[in-house]
Amino acid sequence: MILFVTIAVTIYTLINYLIFIRALQAFPAGSSLRIWFIMAFWLIAASFVAARILERTNPCHFTEFLTWTGNFWLAFMLFFTLIVILLDITRLFNHFFHFLPAFIYSDYLRTKQIILIVSVAYTVIMVTAGYINARNPRVRELSLAVAKSGHGRKSLTISMASDIHLGTIIRKAKAKELVRLLNAPKPDLILLAGDVVDEDLAPVIKDNIGEALCELKAGIGVYAITGNHEYIGGAGPAVEYLEKHCVKMLRDTALLVNGQFYIVGRDDRDKPRFTGKARKELSDIMKDVDHSYPIILMDHQPFNLAKAVENGVDLQLSGHTHHGQIWPFNYITEAIYELSWGYKKIKKTHFYVSCGFGTWGPPVRLGNRPEVLIIHLTFNNE
């Protein structure tokens, strides 16, 4: 963890330095604006790191301000970095093909100032649009059939969400909106596929967000699994908190529900990294499962989909990817995961990977909208 944090802070600092050096060129040497820019830039850049430290030890209004500032700055960093790369590529091509007009270089300082103003304006527009998008989740509905008997049950309505990230950014009001969307179809079952809370539990406790979770209503119950963020903040306290607030946590467990179907919940794939203890293999969890019953699996990170197929799972629900959350990171998640977002069927196994309800880091989404999934599952063994 120390190595990971060191590498992350180093990369964060280098990216900020790159942006800083390029932006500084637009300010004349010796000007008062240059001094103000230097101070403002590094105060804003430091806010993210400061918030990560203070959020655990001193959750207060000042810490919340730092958290919001630092998280928004991550989005600005992304767009500023992309702009710097685009400008450098343009300059490189111009070096060989000389296609830029001469007036750009006649008053180079003025040109840099115009570029800075346009870059900031463009980034503000994009981040604002992404913030509005992130605050407006949609409901997706999916109808699926499982060729097995429901042992007295012909259908099952499931409300599902993942990657909620309850904390300083996703607060009680947003949690109540999630509850309303999950409760709306009057589901038989509510499933939360990991990262229910963000890294630090302190803001969740301070805002009493768990109270909203107790308003979830499903005839059969509310079940959840751990995600990597539960482990980052400490899985034990997070699980205990969620259990106390009306959510049944499944941790490498297979549960026969009402003698009709199984819910299998896996601990997160990152468990060994944070605890030094391995999670159970899926085959070990399911060794006593009767495969004549429908089997629903929750596994936060959608790696190794073939294992679910091999073990006779009928429906796997996952999250984690956020589908990149902000373009162009979706291209990275699509390269890493067999399924970055949406539905896929492999042989007899249905898969759905949610892009998530909340956000990590920047409260911004571009390229996808947050979502709640409603699944209408029917059973028919004929």
Which helices and strands, and how do they pair?
Layout (H helix, E strand, L loop, with lengths): L1 H23 L7 H26 L3 H37 L5 H4 L1 H27 L3 E9 L8 E7 L10 H12 L5 E4 L9 H5 L3 H4 L7 E4 L3 H6 L1 H10 L3 E2 L3 E5 L3 E5 L5 H5 L6 H4 L9 E4 L6 H6 L4 E4 L10 H8 L5 E5 L2 E5 L17 E9 L3
Parallel strand pairs: 1-12, 2-3, 3-4, 4-5, 7-8, 8-9, 9-11
Antiparallel strand pairs: 2-12, 6-7, 10-11
Helix pairs in contact: 1-2, 1-3, 2-3, 3-5
Explain what this protein looks like in three dimensions.
The chain has helices at 2-24, 32-57, 61-97, 103-106, 108-134, 172-183, 202-206, 210-213, 228-233, 235-244, 271-275, 282-285, 305-310, 329-336; strands at residues 138-146, 155-161, 189-192, 221-224, 248-249, 253-257, 261-265, 295-298, 315-318, 342-346, 349-353, 371-379. The protein is of the alpha/beta class and 382 residues long. It has a six-stranded mixed β-sheet, with helices on one face. Strands 6-7-8-9-11-10 form a six-stranded mixed β-sheet. Helix 1 packs antiparallel against helix 2, helix 2 packs across helix 3 and helix 3 (61-97) crosses helix 5 (108-134).
